[in-house]
Amino acid sequence: MEHKKQVSEELLLDFHLDRLTDEDCSWIEAELRRDADLRGISDRLGRVLQPLDHARPGPVPASLAENVLAYIARSTDPLLPIPFPTNSRDRSRSPFLHMRELIAVAACILLLVGVAVPGVSELRGRSQRALCANNLSSIFQGASAYQQAFGDSLPFAGGVAAASWLPGGEGGAPYASNSRHPYLLVKLNYGPKPKDFICPGSSIAEAMPTDQVAAHDDFGAARNISYDSLNLAGASPNLRPPVAIAYISDANPLFVGARFNDAVDPSCTNSAAHGGRGQSVLTLNGTVQFVRSPIYDATRDNLWTIGDVRRYRGTESTTRNDDAFLVPGYPITDPMIRASYKH
Amino acid sequence: MDTPTDEKLLQDYLRGKPGSFELLVRRHAQELFQFVLRFTGDSVAAEDVVQESLLQVHTSAATFDPTRRFKPWLFTIAANKARDYLRRRSRRHEVPFDAHLGEEGDTGRRFIHLLASDIAAPDEELLIDEKRRVVRTVLEAMPEKLREVLVLAYYHRFPYKDIGEIVDIPLGTVKSRLHAAVVAFGEAYREAVVESAKRTT
């Protein structure tokens, strides 16, 4: 009897998983009609399996295949694997063919390096993303403390009438760097340190020396902040609550060298900080995510743009408090900015 | 026009036919992502594993045995990489399940023991979202070797033979492991539901 039940359990599972032939299914159904004990076991099994249907996986990223293909292209170029056709001819006596074998071995070694190096690089990338997320968490804690002290206002260093947030604005507009605002968290000791504004994925950024913080009203140089923050030009700094929009993230790729680069497609270009694979984003509700597209939330908001505006001169500003627009800050004390900017 | 098989596409790719590999990626990336996501419970890791797996297929295509089928080979690569990821993460505690598992993951428990004292199914009180959360939590807490067989069999409907190839175990072990996985899931789910019900009351 026990043997029969054990066998029935194996078959019952296959029956519930729809893995039996029609003939076996009919036989099991007949057994179930006949045997009340077996029917009871089958019911229990069905109730165990039924919840599994609730474990729907999360959404598949819309650009998954594109991301995979881009990743493969980056990882293999210029060592694209070339299938070698087999050659059955006798080639043992030709010194030229020995050379070909040497070349083949060298190619294999290069190929192995091509496979191994991205692996190491990937591990490093994950570590950098984790450190980057820690930075943004520190900034959020500082910003929260600031908001509590200043009636829910985001760090705000004051507005400058008709100012441009991009150096060299048109018509001699005054310049006001957007990085003055988050700099308040450092200057007023709300927690974040200068090093927290440097993404570990950035190769050129370096933290502002702490002994210089008190003497400045902004980061000392553009390289002292690798993150871009919510553009507060023309906007109310009080954005909390109800909205939870992006506040700070890795650098906006539309702006390179303090200039707007119109060759970049904002709809699909990630920050360069993490090898173009995505960007860490802090939202005002305290969430830090690594997102693989500039379109970052359910509202399909683009981190890098204001609505559909495609060109930026430095005078544009957000008109809606649910439209994130993250822009770089170029401190006026930066030697390059100081040299190029005409007061 | 007939849709080319995976194996044909891989052969075409090896012969240099443009677009063949891209078609393979587009055909399998989504299902592979869902498998790895269920296996690891982490969407960022799942995307990384999918990328790494398909990169390995790209670079190792010439080593593929054309007498075998492509999809189990692809899932074997992904399962190995997902296991590597979980080992690196190593934050999971599997003792509650492992403590009573035998050599092949067989608990010795049968379906007849499941929900044996169940008069009113406790999960009927749970909301759909809560059920989903509980199922996900239970699945993620299962030992890898049970979870992967359950996911491959239940969600991806791989034949037992393919599962054996992907997980590298004999056919008989696939069946006993799947049986053990269902029993383990059933028991853990019941406990989780009772806990959840206690919390809400």
What is the assigned CATH homologous superfamily of the largest domain in chain B? Answer: Winged helix-like DNA-binding domain superfamily/Winged helix DNA-binding domain
Q: Which blocks of ≥5 consecutive residues of chain B have pLDDT under 50?
A: 92-106, 116-120
Strand content of chain B: under 5%
Helix tally of chain B equals 9
Q: What Rg of chain B do the Cα atoms give? A: 19 Å
Write the CATH fold name of the largest domain in chain B: Arc Repressor Mutant, subunit A
Number of strands of chain A: 7
Main sheet attributes: strand count, strand direction, barrel closure of chain A: 5 strands, antiparallel
Indicate the low-confidence ranges of chain A by residue numbers: 1-7, 79-97
Radius of gyration of chain A: 30 Å
Q: How many H/I helical runs of chain A? A: 7
For the termini of chain A, the CA-CA separation is 95 Å
How many domains, in number, for the residues of chain B? 2
Order of helices and strands of chain A: HHHHHHEEEEEEEH
Q: Provide the structure class of chain A.
A: alpha+beta
Description of the molecule:
- The complex is a heterodimer of chains A (343) and B (201).
- Chain A is of the alpha+beta class.
- Chain A has 3 domains: 2-54, no CATH class; 65-83 and 92-122; 128-340, no CATH class.
- In chain A, 36% of the residues lie in helices and 7% in strands.
- Chain A contains 7 helices and 7 strands.
- In chain A, the strands form 2 sheets. A 5-stranded antiparallel beta sheet of chain A has the order 6-5-2-1-7, covered by helices on one side. Chain A has a two-stranded antiparallel ribbon with strand order 3-4.
- Chain A is elongated, with a radius of gyration of 30 Å.
- Residues 1-7 and 79-97 of chain A have low confidence and may be disordered.
- By secondary structure, chain B is mostly helical.
- Chain B has 2 domains: 6-89, RNA polymerase sigma factor, region 2, helix turn helix motif (Rna Polymerase Sigma Factor, Chain: A), CATH 1.10.1740; 95-200, Arc Repressor Mutant, subunit A (Orthogonal Bundle).
- Chain B is built from 9 helices and no strands.
- In chain B, helix 2 packs across helix 4.
- Chain B is elongated, with a radius of gyration of 19 Å.
- The relative contact order of chain B is 0.12.
- Mean pLDDT of chain B is 82; it is low at 92-106 and 116-120.
- Chains A and B meet through helix 1, helix 3, helix 4 and helix 5 of A and helix 2, helix 3, helix 6, helix 7 and helix 9 of B.
